[in-house]
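Table S2 (continued). Query chain:
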Amino acid sequence: MKKITVNYIIDFLAILSFFVISTSGAVLYFIFSKGSSRGGVNFLGLVKSEWITIHDWGALVLTILILIHFLMHWSWFVDMSKNIFRR
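Corresponding output:
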């Protein structure tokens, strides 16, 4: 597979993970207010602990994808750092 295709897939999955984290974070903040862990409260059929699990896994996936993205572009970071700090 070409590097550009792999890069596209990594970037697409990172954006998708970002939206998962953003959505689950908004649900946790606005729907499940602090301390609302009482039974029976759910949103879209999921209770607070399930939303937290989705949020945590999304964050882990995004972190891994960002690390992969960073490693794929390591030479660009090195070159840009040399250009910026040379001045």
